Amino acid sequence: MEFAELIRTGQAQAELLRGPEEPPLRGTLCITGHHLLLSPGPQATPDLWLLLLRNVDSIEKRIAGDSGTITLRCKDLRVLQLDIEGVEATLDIARSIEALSSLESVITSFPFFYRPKGLRLGDAWHFHPPECYYKRVARETNAWRLSEANEDFSLCPSYPRAVIVPRAVEDSALARSARFRQGGRFPVLSYYHAPSGTVLLRAGQPLTGPQKRRCSEDEELLRVVLAGARPGARGFIVDTRSPQAAKQARMTGGGTEAKAAYPGWKRLHRPLERGRPLQESFVHLVEACGDLEQSMDRWLNRLESCRWLSHVKETLSTACLAAQSMEQEGACVLVHGADGTDSTLLITSLAQLILDPLSRTMAGFQELIEREWIQAGHPFQLRCAHSAFSHARPKHEAPTFLLFLDCVWQLGRQFPLSLEFGEGMLLALFDHAYASPFGTFLCNNEKERCLCEVRTRTHSLWSGLSQPKEQRKLRNPLYVPNPLAIWPSAEPQSLRLWQGLFLRGTRLPEPSEVAWEKVWQIVTDQEKTEGSQPTDSASEPRP
Amino acid sequence: MEHVENVRLVDRISSKKAALGTLYLTATHVIFVETAPDARKETWILHSQIATIEKQATTATGCPLLIRCKNFQLLQLVIPQERDCHDVYISLIRLARPVKYEELYCFSFNPKLDREEREQGWMLIDLSEEYKRMGLPNNYWQLSDVNREYRVCDSYPTELYVPKSATAHIIVGSSKFRSRRRFPALSYYYKDNHASICRSSQPLSGFSARCLEDEQMLQAIRKANPGSDFIYVVDTRPKLNAMANRAAGKGYENEDNYSNIKFQFIGIENIHVMRNSLQKMLEVCELKSPSMSDFLWGLENSGWLRHIKAIMDAGVFIAKAVSEEGASVLVHCSDGWDRTAQGCSVASLLLDPHYRTLKGFMVLIEKDWISFGHKFTHRYGNLDGDPREISPVIDQFLECVWQLMEQFPCAFEFNERFLIHIQHHIYSCQFGNFLCNSQKERQELKIQERTYSLWAHLWKNRADYLNPLFRADHSQTWGVLHLPTAPCNFMYKFWNGMYNRFEKGLQPRQSVTDYLMAVKEETQQLEEELEALEERLEKIQKVQLSRTKVRSKQSEPSKHSGFSTSDNSTANTPQDYSGNVKSFPSRSPSQGDEDSALILTQDNLKSSDPDLSANSDQESGVEDLSCRSPSGGECVPSEDSAKDRDSDEAVFLTA
């Protein structure tokens, strides 16, 4: 396919408004296959303004006289306004943006063309293969092995090639357990909690169906997990659906673990919102935050009716429950919902942030996202196809990953010294999950990424983020390693709206930036002083 | 001294866990001492902090007594014998409602300062200095002695600034036309453009009355600002309330009678609405594991944040009129001592960076609240009186300041703790500053000779109250503070740090402020050490130039003087995450252990530092270390945490 066919205009004169307080930018507007460009006159400060077309979520055009206005609502929640000279030009540009921003083909997307200076293809992609995490586990326990049963993605298309399973379970048993689980997602190790010797597992729902089928290999697998933990260890199955929903799933071939079939395991239902209701919650919240006319009287009611903060609360408290079961109860935990690719990952990744100090470091957090979201098969392409502004009827969109980032932000607010990364990192991850020049969040799972050769033909976000110039934005200057578990409060009084994200388009960022500068200054002052101890010759000579 | 044994202090959050101890009633405090030998924790409550005492229906375990405090602490006690409970109840009712000023704590509180120190303390904040700082007196404004010996208005101070052209005749005439004779007087003078903020009470205009002197008085205020040909008159009440007042012969200025005024209503509700609103919000705070919807609905329905916004709107309107339009503003409400004080002080805070410093903020409260006769004793129920007079007027002002601090994290020299401690002491009656309803009363009671000043106490401990992010140098934080014009809805947040301040589990577990202050302090120490070392080196080099070899050994600077252990590994145990799932009935098992803000040890009291959370911060630093055991896995778990584990297990088994 040629992009040229979709580009209906060469260029036009336009004025760009980027926000309530930013000065407008005038210049020549043009469109390429992946970008909208505005090149201001030579005297302007930024010499080129660039927008990734993939970032455009919705487009609205208005014609008045012989000029037009295009409003672009972006996936990163920013709103841009373009005033364009000429009716034809306006319509052409609008049509071109519409066509180019909704292309679905992965291999013609921008990451396959993006070749930044200073980065080499293939760098940083292999920081976090499953082998890497397995090595960490193997240092602590011998009860688990790295299985390559899914080498060709035949057992489970949404799992990576290698997964960590109980040593005592054969590959053939895994295959049978896979057939008994939704999407082939048999129980695999998500996290090994060394201090308590307990494990966190994740899976898809068991396919018990209306006949209440059972699978002895699956039962054996979970029995072996308990036996491997410690004598008399118990387990909790955290089902992220309500008991009714889990029961109902039987009608369509799914279901949940029968009590009698899994001795030692106790099921807990913690219903979490998913799918379309979650997407709608996101859409309503963004709408409410963008409504400048709204009076103070109704704001809290409106915030409540969006339900977003309720979802944050439920998610955090479920993750805490899973973490608490492991750390305080010494129990093993298996998490699943239906597919095991959404709310399941929310819980397992958050539980690790709570328990595992390593995952709160810059590198550890990237590893966590790579392992628990990207390789674990969260369908980013489907979930992040549209953000909150799209008028398209949502199909598979859901802001699950955003909900995760919001929960991490809440953690960071309650423990401002315990995360090595700052709000900037979370915002960057949100932006890149929805539209990115990097290949990291492309496709829905490892299998697709292999087919598209994402790892060899695109750059990794992690190497992009490791550029020195990015660090001030991404790091938390207050970070001090904290070896303990961090238990957040999930009470409503302790949770807040993430203004840095949801009010991006309407709020002035300056006051918080001024504060951030000051924090950096205080911290770097100290480092400077510490570094400037007297040199050798300057110290007192000893007699 | 009365005491009751075997009393249980119930953890409000976990119904299972209660501390056993002895309850003592002293002349000034309620003290609960835990029996557990390893803890012996003490909870001290000043009688003056007690807002309500509620005796609840007797149960099998005893008779519950609920004590709600004015600083938002909530204490639930269970007393085994109904009779004892009744006795305690009756005693507390009496103790919590003193009838004479002399019964208040400040008259017996002795921080062991000598007379000179006490007098110096009272001189720390000097309003005549403050008017000088504003640039007064000048060609337009003069100090008037018309109110000497409180002859014109007994709720005003004796020292007042009025326009030069306002003669005594005009002032007295105007005062007769104003409620409680509170005539227009200067609150703040903006040197940059000569505009001023004046304050008064409502005019006695009724439906048609007018007063020539009052009209001349407003004229004089306008003339004192040559840069503008009109003044604003801001009535901070809702229009309906102001109109209703006309029927009683009061009301508001008729624009036809006063030349060159622009009249504006703001719509801050009266003290009764505010009292009820706070009540409703506190009910939301007391909810046991509320859902997000319960909480947001409750908060919305209380209307509290809406009222805070109204007060802020008043301040913003006044500040804009002064700084942008260069117009003087006369502010009033009904009596001119509640909403007027709020509006004037918020405006001053926005206009003048001096008021955003530690000392400047004390001056601001001294000026707009204490000297202008805000009725502290009535509003905060320090003495037994009409409960309808009680209202959280200054609490709302403090919250406005907090909301501004959230918006402008670098604009204030002080931190949140400073506001919380001021709130605490407005109710504690431990210092004399906030006693009585007017300066006249304070003089009659000889407050300065018989009590101590809070300002001196806060100033002495100022290191605790500094905001490390304060940037006096930045264009955005200096000069006039500009609030974003567009969506302000999101700006107003629930002040968890105040209204849930004793629920430590709900607060952020690490403090950025404390951490940064520690870092700054350490940097300073290191710099000093470095300087000293370099000086020494210079000397040594001079003396020992001939020495051959220098063996290197650096003196180790006091690296990370402790803060990295105490501040960062926070006291933290899991809470109850089961929410309202019935199978998980208990709340956080060990939350009570960390709730150290409840604790006020006798030592602290003796050292005249009644500041609850200042001490608790240190205490939790110590407790942090003990809390490492359950998760650190290296230490032997303490008895407590072992207990917790059991109780948790029980919880899970019932699941």
TrEMBL record, chain A:
InterPro entries: Myotubularin (IPR030564), Myotubularin-like_Pase_dom (IPR010569), PH-like_dom_sf (IPR011993), Prot-tyrosine_phosphatase-like (IPR029021). One of its GO terms (molecular function) is protein phosphatase binding. CDD domains: PTP-MTMR9. One of its GO terms (biological process) is phosphatidylinositol dephosphorylation. Belongs to the protein-tyrosine phosphatase family. Non-receptor class myotubularin subfamily. SUPFAM superfamilies: (Phosphotyrosine protein) phosphatases II, PH domain-like. This is Myotubularin phosphatase domain-containing protein. It holds the Pfam family Myotub-related. GO terms for cellular component: cytoplasm. Transmembrane segments: none annotated. Residues 124-502 form the Myotubularin phosphatase domain.
UniProtKB/TrEMBL annotation, chain B:
This is Uncharacterized protein. Residues 516-543 form a coiled coil. Belongs to the protein-tyrosine phosphatase family. Non-receptor class myotubularin subfamily. PROSITE patterns: PPASE_MYOTUBULARIN, TYR_PHOSPHATASE_1, TYR_PHOSPHATASE_2. It is a peripheral membrane protein. It comes from the Eukaryota. Substrate binds at residues 270-271, 333-339. One of its GO terms (biological process) is phosphatidylinositol dephosphorylation. GO terms for cellular component: cytoplasm; endomembrane system. Pfam families: Myotub-related, PH-GRAM_MTMR6-like. Signal peptide: none annotated. Keywords: Coiled coil, Cytoplasm, Hydrolase, Lipid metabolism. GO terms for molecular function: phosphatidylinositol-3,5-bisphosphate phosphatase activity; phosphatidylinositol-3-phosphate phosphatase activity. The active site is at 333 (phosphocysteine intermediate). It comes from Muntiacus muntjak.
